[in-house]
Amino acid sequence: MSAHPADSRLIGHLWSTAESRALLADEGRVQSWLHILATLAEAQADVGLIPVAAAEVIRGHAQVERIDLDLVAAETRASGHSTMGLIRALRATLPNSAREWVYYGATVQDLSDTWAALTCRAIGDIMARDVTALRDLAADLARRHRDTPMCGRTHGQPGLPITFGFKAAVWAAELDRHLGRLAEGRRRWEVAQLGGALGTMEFWGERSMDLLEGFARRLGLGAPEICWLTARDRVAEFVCLLAATSATVAKIGNEVFQLQRPEIGEVREGFRAGTVGSITMPHKRNPENSEQLVTLSRVIRAQAGLALEGMVSEHERDGRAWKTEWLLLPEACLAFSASCTLGVAMLEGLEVDTERMSHNLASHRGYLMSEPVLRALSDRLGKHTAYDAVYEASMTGIEAGQDFATALRADRRLDVITDEELRSLLDVRGALGSAGEFVDRVLAGLGSPT
């Protein structure tokens, strides 16, 4: 039984994935802890701190199935110590020859921070896989709709024409930059912790440095230049990356949400038979995935704020900082995994209505081409004089219910443009600027260092 929505059999799919739940649930967490303890024992045996035979026994017993999780929970509460329950439960499964060598000289943060680094690595792998899928889906939309004209909008209102491919290329490029940040940053947060009581590794004496290097190497993590007991920038940076990436996914979701409005109707989420939009309005087809993407990002971005708070810590150990991460890191990771999964589903099923895009462009009766007209007049009247002339013609024409060409022809100052030239200037495809070239530029650069 769980009170957290991520674990709910009813709504858990909205807040997490089976993959992330398996990683972060008690069983997955404890298995990771046991792996860290067994690896520590092996690294200590490598440098002669504990018997090799003891390390082998500890490894053999480092299986969550061998541990009584109820005992772990009871002893954790009874001792008031974060890992004492785990140590007592593990020691209870070991023969006398190995019991004294478990957790030899290590402390809570050596275990919990190293677990955080392993979690960052696992979620980083999920991010690399799923954000790459999102990027590639956006890139495919950009490629297929490189030359599909649509209304570009600023401040929520139609501006110049763009192409849908141009819009999707912006998404792909932004997602690609997040993948670059992930690749570049992993060396900073996928780092082991092994400091002992105050980070100086005093307990292990002259073998400390060799132990640190061996422990990290066995786990496939980096060895820190110095302990990071109160240096929480590693976790904060990773969570901030999750927040920033989820914000991009939410931005894409919000764009789909807005463009799906019937009064715009240019894209829509794919519909699955049986999906219900409203219990009282049977006709409704709601943008469920795109809406949830915005919600999930809000949750993740809230965790980023907490992670940054943890960077302000005290002296050489401050539980107020890193214990907060025990809550915020899983929360951010669960929501992020759901965000990626829903985002992929949304883009995979996205329906693009090119006819509606064309209809919406035509409905503005030429006014979206005001900039090409301004550009043509600037060489003849001067840019600012030309602007005033086009502005006045536009405002007068809109108020009078005229199309743009009629409004322009009512102002004699604009007679310097011939009818043939005006027809060319009001052609949507002539007003797309370098949209297509930018799409090509993005597609050619995906996956390259930036």
Written overview of the protein:
This protein is mainly alpha-helical and 450 residues long. The protein folds into three domains: 11-99, Fumarase C, Chain B, domain 1 (Orthogonal Bundle), CATH 1.10.275; 108-193 and 224-360, Fumarase C, Chain A, domain 2, CATH 1.20.200; 367-425. It is built from 18 helices and four strands. The strands form two sheets. Strands 1-2 form a two-stranded antiparallel ribbon. It has a two-stranded antiparallel ribbon with strand order 3-4. Strand 1 (149-154) and strand 2 form a beta hairpin. The longest helix has 37 residues, at 108-144.
- Low-confidence stretches are none
Strand content: under 5%
- Major sheet: 2 strands, antiparallel
Assign the CATH architecture of the largest domain: Up-down Bundle
> What's the total number of strands?
4
CATH fold descriptor of the largest domain: Fumarase C, Chain A, domain 2
Rounded radius of gyration (Å): 30 Å
Order of H and E elements: HHHHHHHEEHHHEHHEHHHHHH
Structural class, from secondary structure content? mainly alpha
The level 1 CATH classification of the largest domain is Mainly Alpha
The number of domains:
3
